[in-house]
Structure prediction request, 187 residues.
Amino acid sequence: MTENEIIEMQKRIGAEPDGFWGPASISACKKHLRALMPAINPWPTTDQESLTRFYGAAGDESQLINLNVEGLGLLYAGKPVRTVRCHDKVSGSLYRILSSISKGPHASLLKKYEGVYANRPMRGGSKPSLHARGAAIDLAAATNGNHVSWPVKATMPLEVMEEFSKEGWVSAGAFWGRDGMHYEATK
Prediction:
């Protein structure tokens, strides 16, 4: 993002609009996004015991459904996506998020859909990814990679993160400072 884009975002989140993304801006952004989340967040914490209790075992495809997303503009590798394979417990929430994004100024990000369910470990680790439970989604990986600093280098719009926050989802870019493509249904 440009310095001016960072200044505008700092104004939006209540941080000092100085164009420098540091600890004060990071804290303000997290506070801003948390304030949008439901008072009682419906999702589990990220420890494996809580995730298994809530979502079931990683890789258990019996918990997954094919969520109809026709008409929302999702593309994967340039091809239209009709259904998204996700955990049944996140399906309604995920549909509301994608539907809202599809009607807004950042709808083009849905043309850069990268997937939900993938039975794999976390990148660089051995514990199951939230993707292995169908409770995470990636968008626009080419400009929001795992090791790309958000928002200094990554380009994921704050407005998209806000849509996920309204449903209680965590935006990795804002909360981890990297992996701006990744959103997960956790606290």
